[in-house]
Design a protein that fits this description.
Belongs to the class-III pyridoxal-phosphate-dependent aminotransferase family. By secondary structure, this protein is an alpha/beta fold. It has two domains: about 10-70 and about 335-445, Aspartate Aminotransferase, domain 1 (Alpha-Beta Complex), CATH 3.90.1150.10; about 85-335, Type I PLP-dependent aspartate aminotransferase-like (Major domain) (Aspartate Aminotransferase, domain 2). Helix content is about 40%, strand content about 15%. The protein is built from 15 helices and 15 strands. The strands form three sheets. A seven-stranded mixed β-sheet has the order 4-10-9-8-7-5-6, with helices on both faces. A four-stranded mixed β-sheet has the order 1-2-3-13. A four-stranded antiparallel β-sheet has the order 11-12-15-14, covered by helices on one side. Helix 5 (about 95-105) packs parallel to helix 11 and helix 12 packs parallel to helix 14. The radius of gyration is 22 Å and the shape is globular. The chain starts with a helix and ends with a helix. Bound molecules: pyridoxal-5'-phosphate. Pyridoxal-5'-phosphate binds next to helix 6.
């Protein structure tokens, strides 16, 4: 106790905060990148405890699409907290969650015969969706994809396939989950290109349906419309449409995990809108609560009403304060046309990375993405680690995905000047690397995924 309080009094620099953090927070909560602690933020800028400024290319893992330090959202939260912070909607009713649900339904592709189920995180909402698809179809089997990250609750872990640490020491998962290859065209296992592609990876599912996986027992396919943590992989439109058709053919529900890609990230409100497909259920989280914890499942009313209470409810879910924050955020999204901003700025930023690729083809191998959801593949893991470390030291919050993909997902309010400055910092890091000026220190600090 005494050593902790001594630490508290000393706690004033980023490094000290990070050191204290490792003493008191469980290590499974951390994918270490750089010992920086943030004190405040404004728009796409962040400030650490030394007052150093950073441009944020991570948006708190795509959960701060509206940017940091938004006064209007803060006022809405303050006002709601003073009036009635929350009263559980499990037992009585409040206006704010009803209003938020009504607005979300208007955003859903297709008709308005939809309903909403609130949770507090993306992962919990994935669990909700798993329960709902089983409840509605009476089927037990689930299909998802290699490389998928759907979250950390037991259901979400069961349908994820991205890290052995999400399985080790945990024992049984939920049964009957079947993983298939996501269409990663840049590394097509069939050696096909866009012209020669016959959707061979989709045929893997069809083969399974004819040999060992009875399609009439499959409740749902869970699909990330852009595979986020696998490296911001955008699937071909014809694949997504064919997958959706396959679902319809067999009465399988098509569930999209929009936790990372919704809220304009891809230049459309929902990433699935890029593929002209209407999913049966959409799962959201991250940016959905205007900076407060919020998870959402929404979709066709008959599916949403297929379970009775208390099959999936949480005391604090959809509470008035988080919904007040979310409603204000939605108002700002519409007023500022942030979805369109993401599309236009995304084009600009992607082109800047493509220009950089032309200059450094031996370092930058691929640039891809939609809107402000951009993945930039570098040549190898050590290069990537050194470059992101150097960028962080030079005022750019930038992390990697997989072995060597830069994750470029800034708040949608990032300015053109900030995008230009980010490119300058990345280019300088590349030059420093080529000149042998970056030490190996980064390799021992950053563990990442
Ligand atoms: C695609 C996707 N699904 C699910 C999740 C889990 O969301 P949460 O961390 O809010 O539980 C994440 C989080 O990174 C995600 O990116």
């Amino acid at each position: 106790m005494s050593s902790l309080s001594t630490n508290k009094e000393r706690l004033s620099t980023s490094k000290e905060i990070c050191a204290r953090e490792s003493e008191v927070l469980a290590k499974t909560q951390k994918l270490p990148y750089c010992p920086i602690a943030f004190k405040s933020g404004k728009g796409a800028l962040l400030y650490d405890y030394e007052g150093k400024e950073y441009i944020d290319l991570l948006a708190s893992a795509s959960s701060a699409n509206i940017g940091h330090g938004n006064e209007e959202v803060a006022d809405a939260v303050r006002e709601q907290m003073a009036k009635l912070a929350q009263f559980s909607i499990v037992y009585f009713s409040c206006k704010e969650p009803v209003e938020y649900a009504e607005k979300l339904i208007e955003l859903y592709p297709g008709d308005n015969n939809k309903k909403v189920l609130f949770s507090t995180t993306g992962s919990e909402s994935i669990d909700a969706a798993i329960k709902l698809v089983k409840g509605y179809t009476g089927r037990n089997k689930i299909i998802s994809f290699n490389g998928a990250y759907h979250g950390s609750t037991f259901g979400a872990i069961s349908i994820s396939a991205i890290s052995l640490n999400m399985r080790r020491k945990m024992g049984a998962m939920i049964p009957d989950v079947h993983h298939f290859n996501y269409p990663v065209c840049i590394r097509c296992p069939y050696g096909k290109c866009e012209e020669s592609c016959n959707l061979e990876c989709l045929k893997e599912i069809e083969t399974a349906f004819s040999l060992y996986l009875p399609p009439e027992e499959v409740a749902a396919i869970f699909f990330e419309p852009i595979a986020g943590d696998a490296g911001i992989i955008v699937p071909p439109k014809k694949y997504v449409q064919a997958l959706h058709e396959l679902c319809k053919k067999h009465g399988i529900l098509f569930v999209v995990d929009e936790i990372q890609q919704a809220w304009g990230r891809s230049g459309k409100f929902f990433a699935i809108e890029n593929f002209d497909v209407e999913p049966d259920l959409i799962v959201m989280g991250k940016s959905s609560g205007g900076g407060l914890p919020m998870g959402i499942v929404m979709g066709k009313s008959e599916i949403m009403d297929s379970l009775d209470a208390p099959a999936h409810l949480f005391t604090m879910s959809g509470n008035s304060t988080v919904c007040a924050a979310a409603l204000k955020m939605l108002e700002i999204f519409e007023r500022e046309d942030l979805v369109e901003q993401s599309r236009v700025k995304g084009e600009y930023f992607k082109n800047k990375f493509l220009e950089l690729q032309k200059k450094y083809p031996e370092i930058i191998k691929d640039v891809r993405g939609l809107g402000l959801s951009i993945g930039v593949d570098l040549c190898d893991k050590n290069t990537t680690t050194k470059i992101i470390y150097e960028c962080q030291l030079n005022g750019l919050v930038l992390i990697s995905l997989g072995e060597s993909t830069l994750r470029v997902q800034p708040p949608l309010v990032i300015t053109y000047e900030q995008m230009d400055k980010s490119i300058e910092i990345i280019e300088q890091s590349i030059k420093d690397l080529i000149d042998g000026k970056i030490s190996d220190e980064a390799l021992s600090v950053i563990n990442g995924w």
